Amino acid sequence: MDVRETLRLAAASALALSLAACSGSGSGEDSAGDEIEINPSGGSGAGEAIEAVDPDEAASAAPPSDVERPSEPTPEIEGETYKVRVEAPTEVTPGEQTVAAIHVEPSEEWRMNHDFPMSLEVEAPEGIEVVKDHQEIEDAVHYSDERGEWAVTFTPEVGVDDKVFADFRFAVCTDEICVPQREMLAWDVPVQ
Fold it and tell me: Which domains does the chain have, with CATH numbers?
């Protein structure tokens, strides 16, 4: 095992223990010596967190590719280290461009990672044209340590009443570790 792998394992263990201390979930021992469970993901269960990594190595960490699409809209997903919100229109007019906003905010003491290869991959059904279906940090409406925001512009055709999906990958960090995240988002396109 090389030094980087050792650092990764140590960071993941430290995160797991700190999350267990805060949330009471996971596996290990509490201060009384009783066994407790550790869940190092910090995620909501809707998406996936990846092994915690050193901030300098976060850009090369990659989330798994087997996250399922949600069956219902995901207006808000809250993990232990972040919150993601989708602001989608409640009514859309066929042939007119409209916008859904994707927001992410790290939890207290966490910040957005500026080096991670963040991506927002939008997949729309036939009949809904998305202006830009792949977005990165550079495409954000706003990106800072405190939050990130992206605009997904799309135009539905007549007769389309469907759902748009987005595969959202990002990372949040403290001074010691970074935790890449992946959430599958969905919103309805209710055509008038």
Answer: 1-40 (no CATH), 44-189 (2.60.40.10)
